[in-house]
Amino acid sequence: MPDVRGCHLPDDLLYDVENHIWFRERGDGNVTLGMTTVATAMAGQLVAFTPKKAGKAIQAGKSCATVESGKWVGPAKSAAAGEIVEVNEALVNRPALANDDPYDAGWLIVLKPDDWASVKGTLVPGSAVAAPYEAKMAADGFAGCAAKP
Q1: Where is 147: in which H helix or E strand?
Q2: Sequence-distant (≥ 6) Cβ neighbours of residue 72 within 8 angstroms
Q3: Ramachandran assignment for 61, one of left (phi > 0), alpha (psi -120 to 50 degrees), beta (any other)
């Protein structure tokens, strides 16, 4: 598992580094999306998670949910267009799950992508994510997940 500046990035996922979102292929044509440890460390403790509703179509590069912490409110953007087939109700009820377990219990949504093959090619596989994330953290002036703000 790549570890960049104390931030864990599982190598079995695909990453949209620019937007700090991970994708996990589910084997049924759908993908699960979540926030990386980098995103949750930068945002701080999450206090609200407001996803778009299941059945809603989203466009590539647009928000699939709004995430709020004590110091940040913003969109969780999906690199893939498609239909939201499931939202993480546990995360709606307890947003801090994304801080505590971002790659399992803290997932955001399940998406049925319109054209996964073309989107997949734009994402960074976990085995190659360390260098792009190091560059992104350096550009953003982010010290890392272990650093105290």
Answers
A1: none
A2: 42, 43, 44
A3: left
Q: Is 54 helix (H, G, I), strand (E, B) or coil?
A: coil
10-residue averages of pLDDT along the chain (149 residues): 91 97 97 96 95 98 96 94 98 96 97 97 96 95 78
CATH number at residue 93: 2.40.50.100
E-state strands within the chain: 3-4, 7-8, 14-16, 21-25, 31-35, 46-51, 57-58, 62-69, 73-78, 82-87, 109-113, 124-125
What is the pLDDT at residue 2? Answer: 79
CB 137 within 8 A of CB 5: yes
Are the CB atoms for 30 and 112 separated by under 8 Å? yes
Domain count, the chain: 1
How far is residue 15's CA from residue 9's CA, in Å, rounded to a whole number?
9
User: In this structure, is residue 36 part of a structural domain?
Assistant: yes
Domain that holds residue 75: 9-127
